Amino acid sequence: MIAQSQNGTGKTAAFILASLSRVDTSKPFPQVLILSPTYELAIQTANVAKQMGQYCQDIKFCLAIKGEGTHRGRKIKEQVIIGTPGKVMDWSLRYKLFDIQKINVYVLDEANVMIAIQGHHDQCIRVHKKLSKECQVMLFSATYDQEVMDFAEIIVPNPVVIRLRKEEESLENIKQFYVVCKSMDEKFSALSNIYGVISIGQAIVFCHTKKTASWLSEKLTKEGHAVALLSGNMSVSQRIAVLNRFRDGKEKVLITTNVCARGIDVEQVTVVVNFDLPVDQKGKADCETYLHRIGRTGRFGKIGLAINIIDGPRTTIFLKQIEDHFGRKILKLDAEDVDELEKLNKD
Ligand SMILES: Nc1ncnc2c1ncn2[C@@H]1O[C@H](COP(=O)(O)OP(=O)(O)OP(=O)(O)O)[C@@H](O)[C@H]1O
């Protein structure tokens, strides 16, 4: 099955329910393999799985991620393994901690990334090749590139395909705006104004580089805001600690880079700010990442706000590319106009 559904619409519950219903609890060995692209997402998915599985006490879960040690000789008895591709590949093919032929459900969450990123792609395929012919393969994602889709159809023979049209991919419940600035300092002041005026549940601010993210977090902290910083150069345990504090509402604003763009589900996030618009390797607007980023708000039908800060002709072009791609207008906002900002609270 190849399934697509918008960000925050509950794909996790869908594949977990489908997976749990296929577990035979009388058999003490892995029957379901769920792969996530990152450590954080694997943990989040495992938490959802455990919550949903609490009504079937006999189903046991195992996390296959960095830091989860196993003895080489140990055989895994848990029926559901949730992990990242590298670790799952090691445990299954290298150390043979379980019999991959006995897996009857294989799920690739965030399938687009799993297939598009070279390292993940190779690992997923190597595991996939060893699965039995009867194993059901399920791919879930909010977006699919055509290339990825073509490839997905090769690895999933005769798939049931549930797809969205392009214009259905972006959600109506997320209102999108842009603010025009001329310099980094103006961008900072726009963000500060937005933060001061809009009543924010919690916000995620995306930057292009780790450097900008730390600069911004330092500057906001100096202004007295309680902000958290999450970037790729932190250790995985540091990243989890930051996310947990954010989930608990200890900080209202999370400043991050693309590491946090996909899958992370924090219900109270009401605003996403693109301090920098996402750009792909060809130097064009990265529409897919844009969609995943703004999808951190507006979870499961809630109202969300996405504000894009642009700073010159190049980013204006990116914004236009994003508008054209999704066929949805992004409205101009004056970050100096307090009345206009306040109106957003009421709308
Ligand atoms: N049936 C439901 N009723 C109420 N809330 C639900 C239901 N199903 C899922 N949710 C909630 O919706 C939120 C989003 O779910 P989830 O993280 O699975 O979305 P997703 O489709 O995987 O999003 P993304 O594409 O961003 O990864 C979660 O907080 C989840 O608890």
From TrEMBL:
Its EC number is 3.6.4.13. It is an enzyme of class 3 (hydrolase). InterPro entries: DEAD/DEAH_box_helicase_dom, Helicase_ATP-bd, Helicase_C-like, P-loop_NTPase. Residues 1-162 form the Helicase ATP-binding domain. Keywords: ATP-binding, Helicase, Hydrolase, Nucleotide-binding. The keyword Oxidoreductase does not apply. Residues 173-345 form the Helicase C-terminal domain. CDD domains: SF2_C_DEAD. PROSITE patterns: HELICASE_ATP_BIND_1 (PS51192), HELICASE_CTER (PS51194). Gene3D superfamilies: P-loop containing nucleotide triphosphate hydrolases. Signal peptide: none annotated. This is RNA helicase. It comes from Limulus polyphemus. The lineage of its organism: Eukaryota, Metazoa, Ecdysozoa, Arthropoda, Chelicerata.
